[in-house]
Amino acid sequence: MARSKTTRLGRPPASSATETRDRIIDVACQVFSEMGYGVTTNKDVANKAGITTGALYYYFDSKLDMYMAVFKHHQDHIDERMTAAMDAENTLAGKIRAVLEVAYEINVEDPNIARFQGTARIDRDRHPELRQVIPNPPGEGASLVPRLVEEFLYRVGRHHVQTVSGAPVRKSRLENEHVTITGMA
Predict the structure, then answer these.
(1) Which residues, in sequence order, are bridge partners of residue 62?
(2) How confident is the model over 101-113, as a mean pLDDT?
(3) Interior/surface letters 138-154, b for 16+ CB within 10 angstroms, e for the rest
(4) What are the φ and ψ backbone dihedral angles of 91, each rounded to 5 degrees?
């Protein structure tokens, strides 16, 4: 019997293990963002990636492991790009603008990343196993928000007394607001 041309592969012969793993992460991002964590199966991801479910287990021990690989891959990518953009700017307004521009660019380059980030927030709230490995909702507690707040407070709080809406504000109040804002981030 002749072999079907649509036979799924353990790993495409011309690709490396790293390329296959990266392809699985890209496909898993798309599938998780479309279906959510609870409904997605390893078989869904394997089928879409064109590999066997058994081959998928070579790269990831479980669905949770695969989900976290997608999550970490994209968080690292987003943080790296936004940090570089912020570091290239000298003003607070420039830093904020740079972060927003990078967010837009990432979404244009791969809309699945933004969709995944959005569904990750919901998935984390719905699934206890995700809450255990993702302590804060995605995007909250990220290093960028506290950096922007630090920058703002540094610029505003360089002098012992500042004014907010015309009223004098002591440095200690600014420090309290810093704790409040970064705690919410």
Answers:
(1) none
(2) 91
(3) beeeeebbebbbebbbe
(4) -110, 155
Mention every residue, 6+ apart, whose C-beta is less than 8 A from residue 63: 37, 40, 41, 42
Rounded to whole angstroms, the Cα distance separating 101 from 43 reads 36
Burial state string for 96-108 with b = 16 or more CB within 10 A and e = fewer than 16? eebbeebbeebee
Query: Rounded to whole angstroms, how far apart are CA atoms 175 and 105?
Result: 34
Segment 46-49 long-range contacts (CB within 8 Å, at least 24 positions apart): 46/8, 47/8, 49/23, 49/24
Both tokens of residue 184? 């919410």
Rounded to whole angstroms, how far apart are CA atoms 20 and 17? 5
β partners of residue 167: 164
Stated pTM of the model: 0.71
Q: Which tokens in the block code for residue 185?
A: 């981030």
- List, for residues 58-74, the tens digit of each pLDDT value: 999 999 999 999 999 99
